[in-house]
Amino acid sequence: MASFDLVVAGAGIVGLAHALAATRRGLKVAIVERDLRARRSSVQNFGFVTLAGQAEGVTRSRVLRSRDVWLEVTAAAGIPVLQRGALIAARRPEALAVLEEYSQTPSGSGCKLLTAAATRAQFSSASKGIVGALHSVDELRVEARDALPTMLRWLEEAKGVAVHRNRAALAIEANGLATDAGFIEADAVVLAPGSDAAAFAPVLASRQKLHDCRLQMLRLRAPSVKLPAVVMADLSLLRYEGFATLASAAALRERVHAEQPKHVAAGVHVIVAQSADGSLVVGDMLRGRNDRPLDGRLPGGGLEAPSRCVARPARALDRHHQRPWHEHRVRHRRGDDRGALPLSHDAIAAPSEWVVRWAPLIRPGGVVLDVACGSGRHARWLASLGFEVEAVDRDPGLFVDPPEGVTVRGADLEDGSPWPYGERRFDAVVVTNYLHRPLLPVLVGALEPGGMLVYETFAQGNERFGKPSNPAFLLAPGELLDAVRGRLRVLGYEDLTVVEPRPAAVQRVAARRD
Ligand SMILES: Cc1cc2nc3c(=O)[nH]c(=O)nc-3n(C[C@H](O)[C@H](O)[C@H](O)COP(=O)(O)OP(=O)(O)OC[C@H]3O[C@@H](n4cnc5c(N)ncnc54)[C@H](O)[C@@H]3O)c2cc1C
What we know:
- The protein is an alpha/beta fold.
- It contains 18 helices and 22 strands.
- Bound molecules: flavin-adenine dinucleotide.
């Protein structure tokens, strides 16, 4: 396998942007994408580079830079820019006041305020209730579901990026990326798996306070509506910081909260974009990962009523063609979207790279036993992948606030009491940094057919590095292999010295019951 300067995991927009930046520096780049073609947030979105209302400072300068990169890439790769500009239509006088104030700021100086009549002249589908609008000219919109694959092909063909489709990144190692179809050597790895970031790097994700949320969207067929630009409305003025922090926004907020409390609580923000096929994409409602769709429970069907305010589509809409959909995205607690994670090795040391590497072979949705679970680093991570986890430890109090899907049991596994799980069988048994030799045959026997044993602990030689140094806790050469020989099929075995998360002599095995 050729070696690279950079390998990028994930071919969403964040992965592609990093790959592009690296090729500009003359680096040799590979991209690994789990799907045949990207089908997550980056192709489900509005494809909209939004300028109006972005917060001054870092956010706005990043958006301006993004727009320049998009302009360059769309021209070079032959990606059509479908719309330019945005029309922010005010339905309430308080919203118009916000637009007026914004137009006086440095960011708003290039925007034009329109009267109600001028708005309707430009925008024939505008609702009668509109009292004026702000026309911003700098926005761009592409059809994301076409733009992303085109950009990937362009990177491959014109920029020489090696693209591995249908291939999953499993773990970052010191000299590259482990994937389900072999190792890719690289000096640096960019991890851009979108909402799967927490599964890859749970410690880092929790340190950065990432959380997963959903956007609920609607696609409407509206043959008679022709939008001149992307359209936003009153509720958006409370979402975008550049508007929401203006003095005049207080009055708008008060009125909207009084008139549309359910929409505000549901995080509805109105933005309507017209796709190349003429349909309207209406968004969005920000929901927690596990929240149920809200459509039926909001006045006017959630997104539909607010969209009617800006595009008068009540008659134009063919109700049979409306359907809501959801897409996950990762947000920072402070509210800004996060892209690639700046990975440091200490961050990826938990969960153990050995567990991460073999977890994809555990039956999806299966039950995993986490032995000597401690504070639950593996149980939490496995639960986040959708496994049901039984976690056992002599001191269950170490596992604070176990997540849904994890059952914690307190049991002393070394005092001669009966094995707490009796005849129960598991789809996997995971053990790290723990050794009580009499348990080894019990753990092997606790596997269902097809079940995986994923075991990693300290080995003889570790005394050079510190604790544990007691031979009772250190594996003899080949001891894990001996424990499974004749009973399980060995898929992977290593006996080595590692440097991360700290120098240690370890032995590890991944083995399956046939
Ligand atoms: C409905 C919606 C509307 C939006 N509208 C806009 C908008 O108009 N403008 C805007 O700027 N932003 C918008 N956003 C936000 C924007 O789409 C996201 O911030 C962005 O797409 C995130 O890109 P990403 O590359 O991080 O993630 P993703 O698009 O999720 O890409 C991650 C990729 O990584 C791959 N992957 C995951 N795990 C692995 C693995 N183990 N190995 C290999 N590959 C893996 C996935 O298959 C996927 O292709 C919107 C988001 C949503 C959901």
